[in-house]
Design brief:
This protein is of the alpha/beta class and 248 residues long. It is built from eleven helices and eight strands. Strand 2, helix 2 and strand 3 form a beta-alpha-beta unit. An eight-stranded parallel beta barrel has the order 1-2-3-4-5-6-7-8, surrounded by five helices. Helix 1 runs parallel beside helix 2, helix 1 packs across helix 11 and helix 7 packs parallel to helix 8. The longest helix has 19 residues. The chain has a single domain, classed as Alpha-Beta Barrel (TIM Barrel), CATH 3.20.20. The structure holds 1,3-dihydroxyacetonephosphate. 1,3-dihydroxyacetonephosphate binds next to strand 8. The site of 1,3-dihydroxyacetonephosphate has 14 residues, from strand 8.
Length: 248
């Protein structure tokens, strides 16, 4: 029922020209893949790369959106502006945004509601820091993020949750398969408790953090995992394609 999804998060990498070259390499490699595949590219590349993606099965994603529709918010980009460029997904609350740009569950909530209102599917990132993991706060951190970050969302088929432990991002470290399975099932159960069974069933939940071609298949085969959010490996065409194909 839930279509698998693999999203590449390019972060602050690739100029327009480099992005075009990367897409040219990725596109033939992922043809016929069963997973929905999204490229979340830098803001400056959204328009040209969106044009370049037309006619392909790759979808366009952004890496943030402001909650207001317009106004005095220097440096920010609105959902209307993204929508105009054909953006279908937007990453929200990434740990790097929370760490370096002071975003929190409340700002993520406002941005999430704005994205949904304008028909852009948010990929809402939640996860625990190493300190929180060691002090056994993971459950509480995730519950708070789901309660405060997704409050007011009515239809979870339009929302994606990405579980990204801070300590697994860009480190080559991943939780064990058992740990991923337990935490992602916990996230699905918690969505059920907070927002109802139907929403828990329809929400796609991704795993992110050091996913690579050797671990993707076993991670994606876990019952409640609907795909992945990929950082470093999304910049390497062969690796990204293998990861996309692992999501069935
Ligand atoms: P890596 O895949 O490089 O660990 O990054 C994960 C990530 O932050 C995706 O949003």
């Amino acid at each position: 029922m839930r279509k698998p999804l693999v999203a590449g998060n390019w972060k602050m990498n690739k100029t327009v020209q480099e992005g075009i070259e990367l897409i040219n390499e990725i596109r033939p490699l992922v043809e016929g893949a069963s997973a929905e595949t999204v490229l979340c590219v830098p803001s400056t590349s959204l328009y040209p790369l969106g044009q370049h993606l037309q006619g392909s099965n790759l979808k366009l994603g952004a890496q943030n959106v402001h909650h207001a529709e317009f106004g005095a918010y220097t440096g920010e980009i609105s959902a209307l502006m993204l929508k105009e460029l054909g953006v279908e997904y937007v990453i929200l609350g990434h740990s790097e945004r929370r760490t370096f740009f002071a975003e929190n569950n409340h700002s993520v909530n406002k941005r999430t509601l704005t994205a949904v209102k304008h028909g852009i599917k948010p990929i809402v990132c939640i996860g625990e820091t190493l300190y929180e993991k060691k002090s056994e706060q993971t459950g509480q951190v995730l519950t708070t993020a789901l309660r405060d970050g997704l409050e007011g969302v009515e239809d979870f088929s339009q929302v994606v949750v990405a579980y990204e432990p801070y300590w697994a991002i860009g480190t080559g470290k991943t939780p064990t398969l058992d740990q991923i399975a337990i935490v992602i099932s916990f996230i699905r159960d918690t969505i059920g408790q907070l927002y109802g069974e139907k929403n828990s069933e329809s929400c796609r939940i991704l795993y992110g953090g050091s996913v690579n071609p050797s671990n993707a298949e076993e991670i994606f085969s876990l019952l409640d995992v609907d795909g992945g959010l990929i950082g470093g490996a999304s910049l390497k065409p062969q690796q990204f394609a293998e990861i996309v194909k692992a999501a069935k």
